[in-house]
Design a protein that fits this description.
The complex is a heterodimer.
Chain A lengths: L6 H8 L3 H8 L26 E7 L2 E7 L16 E8 L7 E9 L6 E6 L7 E8 L2 E2 L3 E4 L11 E6 L10 H9 L3 E4 L20 H4 L5 H12 L2 H9 L2 E3 L20 H18 L17 E5 L3 E5 L15 E2 L15 H13 L4 E5 L17 E2 L7 H13 L5 E5 L5 E7 L9 E7 L9 E2 L3 H9 L3 E15 L3 E9 L9 E10 L2 E8 L20
Parallel strand pairs in A: 9-10, 10-11, 13-15, 15-17, 17-19
Antiparallel strand pairs in A: 1-2, 2-5, 3-4, 3-6, 6-7, 6-8, 9-21, 12-13, 14-16, 18-19, 18-21, 20-21, 21-22, 22-23, 23-24
Chain B lengths: L2 H5 L6 E3 L15 E6 L3 E4 L6 E9 L5 E9 L4 E2 L3 E6 L7 E9 L7 E9 L2 E10 L16 E3 L27 E2 L8 E20 L7 H4 L1 E9 L6 E6 L6 E21 L6 E9 L1
Parallel strand pairs in B: 3-10
Antiparallel strand pairs in B: 2-4, 4-8, 5-7, 5-9, 6-8, 9-10, 11-13, 12-17, 13-16, 13-17, 14-15, 14-16
The chains are: A alpha+beta, B mainly beta.
Chain lengths: 546, 284
């Protein structure tokens, strides 16, 4: 990394506040960022072992993040329990010739010495580069990009989304590919960590003591995040683009619902949830608005990309009714249609629908955790659907999809995860009736690594394609989805890894799927969509090719 | 000079600083009470026989807070955790928040009195730890008790050492007193115990799951080989059990020198998991 550049000094001197900040940090302003003298608190050990990140871009602001952890798996990350001064810079160029914002903040022990700086006063739809310094240690450089101005016409944006990164089940080869493609923004849709203990895996150290225990206490969740974030490919993906993150279940515990989990009575579970949320916030590039208050965290929020796209990021865990019929895959009996049951909670549902009413965006995107589309997982006439996805909350789904339909929402697109498989679907007003209107399009992305290598189509994937005519594409390999969005069309490029159980897998495009402006539904532009699909038995289903 | 840098002078830069409120202010008594169960602990120098301590923090104050409880052992004590951090709600009645810690000592530890210092905020608690002499392993004693176990896999809800913890009662299955492998319906599984020293053995007693709720005929181990290893050589089968439906099976064999004993689990009743409540090995 080349960071010794002459203009840095002048920027330090001339930008208001720099002198004061440097004085606080005990530094002389005429030294380069990369070689200035030490501040207290951190010794020669590298404190930036968990990388850098940015997130939640606005037209004029972005959050930049790091955490000081010279020994990431030791208590307190190997830090003394006192605040440490951290300097940061944000520049218009990768060499930091043009530093436009900088400052000093404190990494505090009660936040695991994490740093979240909400850098404001930035210009819309611009790339920036950022870095941190503690003493004479300089962090890796992160690249980020602000969102466009709200009224800006955006000719094209690139976006990636990912989910489910079971560390011990695979190498993060998909993230190396994601980093190389340098998207404008990355959405992470849940299962950043897994809370349960494991005792073997495909990676070295998969049976170390710290991974064999389930996470319950705050120190255990912090340790789990650190163990995941040490991965260099994950760090590269964070450093390549701003991330917008939300949780699914495993950030807390498998299939939790609001205050309910079979492992503990609610009061005890809420302590665990509070611990999980605290560690989550500490390790994610989130704003102070998302800082948890005990077991509560305001995570659903809207991210806008000019007139091109508006992303409604959902939280489908914190406010949901408990799973119907004891969870698992069941026949969707009357409980799933019970209008008093909800996946989003009433307030979030109202926020979502009101937001759509006001939206001027070409693409209205639901960034959520699993699949909105119905997933009949049973061959034959019997209907079995997962109780943990929107299928188990059909009344809630009807209000969302029906609400979008009533409001004539322009180009509704859902992106999701959780399934550890790629599934692209037409979103139907009534999934039981293939002739009912298609009200939107859904891209569910596969896991980064959860589930080991997988295969092109497994028996479960074949069943999904056979039983669900609205599903236009399925794949059971690992990977992520890289999207190119223009006013005219949305292209989802399903990037899959041939093998994640070895460190040197290769990544390729399995399929390119298209949604056109004003024409809801998935069209396949490249790649064999469903090679094993049985001949259409439903009559009305249109061929999934162009 | 960089123009954009000048233009931006004076615009706001907000730093997200997390309030330290919730951490008690210096000088006041800490609202966090600390207790342990038991209040004092006895351990022996066996690798798979930890002393189990439950740590409890209780917030007696009026504001919820995050607390870090540090554990500092004296002498040779080895702890499974040196930190217990948690959110502690301020609720009425007070809500205790607990976490387990395992305490081990090396085999050659001198018996005597040691301690663990617990500290949260300015509250300090000392837990006395008595290290007892190793139990004598003479003729007729179980030489597998507390010795180092290894397994092909262990289910996340169970403890590797559970099958050498001295508790062979299947009714205690729910309290981590047995071993359960981690690969459902996949066989074989192995469960090994390394003996403290080469020993001539002639009998292995295996307790598989056999409780009122989970009878062995439906949940216990069905087929297995008893194997021994000596001097770094290969595993040798000394006894075989097939078609078992009982909870307790004794295998006797010609006295054999062994460094380690293995149960090679070949099949379970119900074809799900290998489950061993206790594995006992006796010298001749």
């Amino acid at each position: 990394m080349s960071v010794r550049v002459g203009s840095t000094r002048r920027n330090f001197v001339t930008v208001t506040g720099a002198a004061a900040a440097l004085a606080l940090a005990g530094n002389l302003p005429d030294l380069d960022f990369a070689k200035a003298g030490a501040t207290g608190g951190v010794d020669r050990r590298d404190p930036f072992t968990l990388g850098v990140a940015s997130g939640d871009p606005l037209p004029d602001a972005v959050v930049i993040w790091t955490r000081l952890a010279p020994e990431p798996l030791a208590p307190f990350g190997g830090m003394d329990r006192r605040p440490v001064e951290v300097q940061w810079q944000l520049a218009e160029d990768e060499q930091f010739h043009r530093v436009v914002r900088h400052g000093t903040t404190q990494a505090r022990p009660e936040s695991s010495h994490s740093v979240h700086v909400d850098v404001q006063g930035l210009r819309p739809w611009r790339h920036y580069w950022y870095r941190f310094r503690v003493g004479n240690q300089v962090s890796p450089v992160g690249r980020t990009r602000t969102a466009p101005a709200y009224d800006q016409s955006v000719p094209v944006m690139s976006m990636a989304f990912a989910s489910c990164q079971a560390w011990w089940e695979g190498w993060y080869t998909a993230y190396a590919d994601m980093a190389r493609r340098e998207h404008d923004v990355v959405f992470f849709l849940g299962d950043y960590i897994y809370e349960f203990g494991i005792d073997r895996g495909v990676r070295p150290h998969s049976n170390e003591d710290y991974v064999t225990r389930q996470t319950v206490t705050l120190d255990e969740y912090r340790n789990r995040y650190a163990s995941y974030k040490m991965d260099p490919d994950l760090q590269a993906a964070h450093a390549s683009a701003p991330w917008v993150v939300t949780v699914d279940d495993h950030e807390v515990v498998d299939n939790w619902a609001d205050e309910a989990h079979p492992s503990a009575p609610p009061a005890q579970f809420l302590v665990r949830r509070a611990n999980a949320f605290r560690a989550y916030w500490e390790h994610m590039p989130l704003r102070l608005a998302q800082l948890p208050n005990g077991p509560d965290m305001q995570l659903y929020r809207r991210i806008r990309y000019g007139r091109l796209a508006e992303f409604s990021v959902l939280d489908t865990r914190q406010y949901r009714s408990d799973q119907a019929y004891g969870d698992g895959s069941k026949f969707p009996g009357p409980d799933v249609l019970d209008p008093t049951r909800t996946l989003t909670g009433d307030e979030q549902e109202r926020w979502l629908l009101d937001g759509w009413t006001a939206s001027q965006a070409r693409w209205n995107v639901l960034a959520q955790q699993n699949a909105l589309a119905r997933l009949d997982v049973k061959d034959g006439p019997e209907l079995l659907v997962p109780m943990d996805t929107w299928d188990g909350y059909a009344a809630s789904r009807d209000r969302v999809l029906g609400g979008a339909h009533q409001r004539k929402i322009r180009n509704l697109v859902s992106i999701g995860g959780d399934l550890h498989r790629s599934v692209a679907s037409d979103l139907k007003l009534d999934f039981a009736n293939p002739d009912s209107p298609t009200v939107g399009s859904e891209f569910v992305g596969t896991s980064i690594s959860s589930g080991l290598d997988g295969m092109d189509l497994d028996p479960g994937g074949l069943t999904l394609l056979r039983e669900n005519p609205h599903i236009k594409y399925g794949n059971f390999q690992r990977g992520y989805v890289s999207c190119t969005i223009t006013p005219r069309q949305w292209i989802s490029d399903y990037r899959v890894v041939d093998r994640v159980t070895v460190p040197n897998g290769t990544v390729s495009t399995r399929a390119k799927l298209l949604v056109e402006d004003g024409r809801p539904g998935i069209r396949v532009v490249a790649g064999d969509p469903a090679p094993h699909r049985a001949p259409a038995r439903y009559g009305a289903g249109s061929p999934a090719t162009t | 000079m960089n123009r954009s840098a000048l233009v931006l002078i004076g615009t706001a830069v907000a730093t997200v600083a997390v309030s330290s409120a919730g951490y008690s202010v210096s000088g006041r008594p800490s609202p966090v009470q600390v207790s342990t169960n038991p209040q004092q602990l006895s351990v022996v120098g066996l690798p798979c026989f930890p002393g189990n301590l439950t740590l409890t923090m209780t917030n007696t104050g009026t504001e919820s807070l995050y607390a870090d409880l540090t554990l500092s052992p004296t002498g040779p004590l080895q702890l499974s955790r040196e930190l217990f951090s948690s959110w502690l709600p301020a609720v009425e009645p007070d809500q205790p928040v607990s976490a387990p810690v395992e305490v081990r000592v090396p085999r050659d530890t001198h018996s005597g009195q040691y301690s663990i210092d617990l500290e949260v905020d300015r509250t300090k608690v000392t837990v006395p730890v008595q290290v007892n002499p190793l139990p004598p392993k003479g003729p007729g004693s179980n030489v597998a008790l507390g010795e180092q176990a290894t397994a092909s896999s262990t289910h996340g809800n169970f403890a590797l050492c559970g099958a050498v913890d001295g508790d062979n009662d299947s009714e205690h299955w729910d309290t981590l007193t047995g071993w359960n492998d981690g690969t459902r319906a996949v066989f074989p599984d192995t469960y090994d115990v390394a003996l403290a020293e080469p020993t001539t053995i002639d009998r292995v007693e295996l307790y598989t799951l056999d409780s009122i709720r989970y009878p062995a005929a439906a949940n216990g181990l069905r087929d297995w080989d008893v194997q021994v290893r000596s001097g770094g050589g290969a595993w040798t089968t000394v006894a075989s059990v097939r078609g078992n439906t009982a909870g307790h099976v004794t295998s006797t064999f010609t006295p054999t020198q062994a460094d380690a004993v293995r149960i090679l689990a070949l099949a379970g009743n119900g074809n799900t998991y290998s489950r061993i409540v206790e594995l006992e090995v006796y010298d001749s």
